[in-house]
Structure formats: structure tokens, C-alpha cells
Design a protein that fits this description.
Blueprint (H helix, E strand, L loop, with lengths): L1 E3 L2 E3 L4 H14 L2 E5 L3 H15 L3 H5 L2 E3 L2 E4 L17 E5 L28 H26 L8 H5 L5 E2 L2 E3 L13 E4 L5 E6 L5 E5 L2 E6 L5 E5 L1 H6 L9 E3 L7 E8 L6 E2 L13 E2 H12 L7
Parallel strand pairs: 1-12, 2-3
Antiparallel strand pairs: 3-13, 4-5, 5-6, 6-8, 7-15, 8-15, 9-14, 10-13, 10-15, 11-12, 11-14, 16-17
Length: 304
């Protein structure tokens, strides 16, 4: 059974956008946004196809750590309790970079790029695309804050100053999933951060666990799929849902997607918003929450 998700039109009024977001987030935390120039996402997809077509030798030279650089096929295992092998995907992680102003958090690191001779224009475009996605995410966070009864700019300083947001393009290999035997494109998980914005090549595979069953997400053409992460569920005191999802490749074809994970600064405190009732969670910093999740799921499962 397909899950039709509501569409938020960023060209509509702020109030209309907030109303649609609120309804979706209270139900299952998934919605789509439109108003993103298709030529930008199409170019991003082209760049990622060319990257993943590089030789294994070149890609292996770009391995850094679980948050930066190339992550080979099968290394991640997002649901070790139910998976019999690693995720059938490879990743290129563009993570938060360590600078003189970034502090000492382990979440900051160093990105490693193919040379311009290996992949002309790749680094320049991807850095511009990451900036564009962050700006879009900030606009969405303002709609989300407003929908929760907070000032629209409530989250701004948390995600502008030393944000540990990241871009993690994915290539799913042309292999069929076998859920009954624990084989998935990506195992079941919820996202750890604030909100995720996802562009895909249109190949179906994303499933969401809603009302006790896995449902295929109907991806509206020309949109980005968005979902709420664990931190926003905590901020909203469970008003907004961070829902488990997975990727099941039933056609056995190549599938590409480009998720952008909006996360706050490492020292941002995730605390129940004053509009969301008696707290159900203890306060925790972004860094401590990610560290706890990292420890719980193992070094190969930091994010999807």
C-alpha cells in the first residue's frame, strides 16, 4: 500500500506552509516540498552518478571516517538486529569541517575530494549545492518553528553557528532486497538529527512504518521528500514524529538519492519547547545525543 504524503509549496504563504507541515508531522513526520529549481537537483544527480562511476581505487583513496569522505558498499548496517548483511549502498559523506572557529567536537572533521582532473567541477558544485540545501533547510526550520507556536527564527542560531549538518549522497547497487532474509538497500532506522531533505532519482524504494505496516512512499515528481528527525521529536515533546523508514530495492536497479541532514551545533541543548507541554525527555546536547546513538549502533551506522 502506498503512502501519499502532503506537499508543502514554498511559494505559498508562511501560514499555509506551517499548517500543512503541522498536520504531516503530527501524523507520521513525512511530507514533500516543492519550489526547488529542478535544474539544480538534476545537475546534482548527474554529478553523483559520475562520482560513483569512478574506479574503486579512486573512491577508496577518499575514505576518511564515518562522517566524511567515501563509505564503501556494505560498510553501514543501520538495523543490525534485523539485517543479515550491510546496507547495499555506497556513500559520499560531505560532513561538517573543522576550522579555527569550529570548536573541539569530534563531529567536525576533514572532507576529502576527488581532484578536478578526476571529476571536473565536482567539488565546486557540491559545495554550492550544500549551501543551497542549508538555506532551504533553514527556511523549512522557520516554518516548523512557527508551526509549533514558536517565533519563526527560534532555531536560527542553533543551526547557523557551527552546525553539524551534512550532505550524504547515496548509490544503491542494482541488487534486489530480500526483507524476509534481512537484506535491504538500507535497514530500518529513524534519522538522528533535526530534519532531512531528500532528493531521489525517482526509483521507488523508500518505505515508512506507519500504522503497524511498511508502506511505499509515493514520491511526488519535482519535489524534495522531508522527514522529521529524533532531535525535533524531542524538541516537540513527541508532538512531531520521527518515524522509522528503510529502503527496499525490489526492482534490482541502480538507485541514487541525495539526503541533506539539518543538524544543530554540537553544544545546542535539545530541550522541550515551552509550547509543547510537560517534558517527556531529559535535556541533552546534540553532540551527546549523536554520541549515544553512535555507541548504540556501532561505528558503521552513524547516519543514513
Amino acid at each position: 500500500m502506498e503512502l501519499e504524503i502532503p506537499i508543502v509549496d514554498l511559494d505559498e504563504s508562511f501560514e499555509e506552509c506551517a499548517k500543512t507541515v503541522k498536520h504531516a508531522c503530527e501524523k507520521h513526520g513525512f511530507f514533500a516540498i516543492k519550489g526547488i529549481p529542478e535544474e539544480i537537483t538534476a545537475e546534482a544527480l548527474d554529478h553523483m552518478k559520475r562520482f560513483f562511476a569512478l574506479s574503486e581505487e579512486v573512491k577508496q583513496s577518499l575514505v576518511v571516517d564515518v562522517g566524511h569522505g567515501y563509505i564503501p558498499y556494505g560498510v553501514q548496517n543501520l538495523d543490525p538486529e534485523h539485517q543479515t548483511k550491510g546496507d547495499m549502498k555506497e556513500v559520499f559523506a560531505v560532513g561538517p569541517e573543522k576550522t579555527s572557529d569550529s570548536g573541539e567536537s569530534w563531529l567536525f572533521g576533514t572532507n576529502k575530494w576527488p581532484t578536478d582532473e578526476q571529476l571536473p567541477g565536482f567539488k565546486k558544485f557540491l559545495e554550492e549545492y550544500r549551501k543551497f540545501m542549508h538555506e532551504t533547510s533553514v527556511k523549512l526550520s522557520q516554518i516548523i518553528g512557527y508551526s509549533l507556536g514558536m517565533p519563526a527564527d527560534y532555531f536560527d542560531h542553533k543551526i547557523f553557528d557551527e552546525s553539524v549538518s551534512c550532505l550524504r549522497p547515496l548509490h544503491y547497487f542494482p541488487e534486489k532486497s530480500d526483507p524476509e532474509h534481512g537484506i535491504f538497500g538500507a535497514g530500518a532506522h529513524s534519522d538522528w538529527g533535526m530534519v532531512t531533505l531528500l532528493y531521489t532519482d525517482g526509483q521507488q524504494g523508500l518505505q515508512v512504518f506507519v500504522d503497524g505496516q511498511w508502506r511505499d512512499v509515493k514520491e511526488p515528481r519535482g519535489t524534495l521528500i522531508c522527514n522529521i528527525g529524533d532531535m525535533l521529536q524531542r524538541w516537540s515533546n513527541n508532538k512531531y514524529k520521527s518515524t522509522r523508514h528503510r529502503v527496499v530495492n525490489m526492482k534490482g536497479v541502480d538507485r541514487y538519492s541525495i539526503p541533506y541532514f539539518l543538524n544543530p551545533a554540537p553544544d545546542s541543548v535539545i530541550t522541550t519547547l515551552p509550547t509543547c507541554g510537560t517534558p517527556k525527555y531529559k535535556d541533552i546536547t546534540c553532540e551527546d545525543y549523536v554520541t549515544n546513538m553512535y555507541d548504540a549502533t556501532g561505528p558503521n551506522s552513524i547516519a543514513s
